[in-house]
Amino acid sequence: MAHEENKLKLYSYWRSSCSYRIRIALNLKGLEYQYIPVNLLKGEQYTPEFQKLNPIGYVPVLVDGDIIISDSLAIFMYLEEKYPQHPLLPSDLQKKALNFQAANIVCSSIQPLQNVSVLKYIGEKVSPDERIPWVQSHIEKGFDALEKLLKDHAGRYATGDEVSMADLFLAPQIHGGIQRFNVDMAKFPLLSRLNEAYNELPEFQNAMPENQPDAPSS
Ligand SMILES: N[C@@H](CCC(=O)N[C@@H](CS)C(=O)NCC(=O)O)C(=O)O
């Protein structure tokens, strides 16, 4: 059993979809890690200690010995090379590109628009009532594109019958769309089907927000 000090450390927040991506990757690769909660609602991302790890003040951050990496995409690529067990990128070039494209729709065209700081800004500068419609419109735009992008390539999972990178980015976004932002998934039959497949996998279940040590108990 890995000693606590030798373990990977993941700075995470239970409801953070970016952290959730990495929790799935770590689980699929069978890597034990120490979970270090950062309460985004209490502003713990702005403390000098945390900003030393990630100057932009976002989770997730992964610490592997002397190596500190922030940003889920960078962490994912690092894990994929350093811990090649259970590869999450297909070798087929077209499929690989499709994985990058789907992951990037989530991580650059959907998630940044629903971030805590963005919603706080909209709530203060526009109106609290505008926050959910704003997020819903951007999630739906992205989901619409993802449905079209993946429809000729999906198998049991997003780009075939093996779990791959795209699934790690899609599952948290779909989960958040349903649980936090009340997105009508009837419009997205492929993503709904993928979500059912994700929900059956223990590595995905264990990574869900509600199963994290810092999730509220009720
Ligand atoms: N591109 C970064 C984005 C990280 C990010 O936006 N993290 C969110 C949680 S999912 C966060 O820490 N938000 C804090 C804030 O908005 O103050 C990644 O993929 O890791």
Automatic annotation (TrEMBL):
**GO-annotated cellular components:** cytoplasm
- What terms describe the molecular function in GO for this protein? glutathione transferase activity; maleylacetoacetate isomerase activity
Superkingdom, according to UniProt?
Eukaryota
Family in the record? Belongs to the GST superfamily. Zeta family.
Q: Which UniProt keywords apply?
A: Transferase
Q: To which species is this protein native? A: Malva pusilla (Dwarf mallow)
The keyword Heme appears for this protein: no
Q: Which PROSITE patterns match?
A: GST_CTER, GST_NTER
Question: Which Gene3D superfamilies does the record cross-reference, listed alphabetically?
Answer: 1.20.1050.10, Glutaredoxin
Its recorded reaction(s) are: RX + glutathione = an S-substituted glutathione + a halide anion + H(+)
- Domain GST N-terminal span(s) in chain numbering: 6-87
Provide the top EC class.
Answer: transferase
- What name is this protein filed under? glutathione transferase
EC id:
2.5.1.18
Report the residue ranges that make up the GST C-terminal domain in this protein.
92-217
UniProt cross-references to NCBIfam families, sorted A to Z? maiA (TIGR01262)
Q: Which Pfam families match?
A: GST_C_3, GST_N
Q: Which InterPro entries match?
A: Glutathione-S-Trfase_C-like, Glutathione-S-Trfase_C_sf, Glutathione_S-Trfase, Glutathione_S-Trfase_N, GST_C, GST_Zeta, GST_Zeta_C, GST_Zeta_N
